[in-house]
Amino acid sequence: MSALGVRERGKRTENFWSIANFCIPWIVNQYVRASRRSFLGSKFVPNPPRRHHYVPEFLLKRWASEDGKVVRFKRVRGDKLHAKRVPFQGIGFQENLYALPNMDPKKPITQVLETHFFSPIDNAGAQCLDTLENATDIPADKRFRTDWAAFLLSLSLRGPTAINNLHELAAHLIEEESREGPIEEKTERIVQENPEFAEAVRQPIENFNSRLAMASLPMLVLPQRVLGRIMGLRWFLGTLEGSARELLLSDRPVLWTPLEQPNGSIIFPISPERVFVAARDQQLFEKFSSADPKSLSELINRGTVGCAREFVVARNEKAKKFIEKAFGKLNGAALADAVTSEVYASWKATASKN
């Protein structure tokens, strides 16, 4: 079992879908077959958090000064860039972002994605990040690499834009599934088998689409094929203490290029002085590992700021002119969203075989 609280498929276990079994059998089967993992834990968390961070606090904290604040750069009134010192806990979140739609947000079952899915991933990611912060080499053990790969994937599929895209995809999935028989018949079977979840299942179809979108997140974030690709890349940890420019962080913290391409790579600033890089090509890997700190920091910051859509975080305002010029200028679909298309492709490929 990994730090995520998951284990390989085999014996029947209490899993995420047993906790919130409000989804059609098709999506349940696809999730199990795609990930071959089951989530453990059948107890709900009392008074679950409603502030859902898509950029975790433990990551933002690494850019904070001694007073616990970061400089947040944000577009206001068109293209005008506004810089403000704010507590690191006060950014990178949205109220009830992962809550099951059209249900009481105070009920534990409504927040099950946050408490039983993202929290374990973040807890494992935080431990990995603590290890990397003080490491000279990246640990080679499978548990560490699995936890870190899952954390990277989650950061790219949990922001507000990704969630909105997921709702559109779920509506399309419902339309395709309904051609094979009325959705109501399938959901009624779930109610008969699990009457305690009747409230979550018996919903108008527009509510069901949204419910399905949120239920799909575990399958999308942890497909084995994509996790395997990440774990198979060459991993590098760079220290940029000699750079004149500190690394920046944005609402899209992980930069991706398609992993199936020869130049496929992942770039993730983990602090103002350190960066995690994973590359498929040996030459690209060597280029990253041998680059001088100044050139590498400029390259990374150009991608980080260019892919930003909501905010950029820094320790100070030294890079304000650079941020103002580069903010949101890159094609997010080609860079920060590359992982989304890759995961969706993995999902659809798995679904077509079953």
Could you explain how this protein is built, in words?
With 354 residues, the protein is an alpha+beta fold. The protein contains 15 helices and twelve strands. The chain has helices at 16-19, 25-35, 57-60, 112-133, 142-156, 160-178, 183-193, 198-201, 205-215, 217-221, 224-231, 282-290, 293-307, 320-326, 338-352, and strands at 6-8, 37-39, 51-53, 69-76, 80-87, 93-95, 234-239, 249-250, 255-257, 265-269, 274-279, 312-314. Strands 5-4-12-8 form a four-stranded antiparallel sheet, covered by helices on one side. The chain has a four-stranded antiparallel sheet with strand order 7-11-10-9, with helices on one face. A hairpin with a 4-residue loop joins β10 and β11 (274-279). The chain is globular and about 65 Å long. It starts with 5 loop residues before the first strand and ends with a helix.
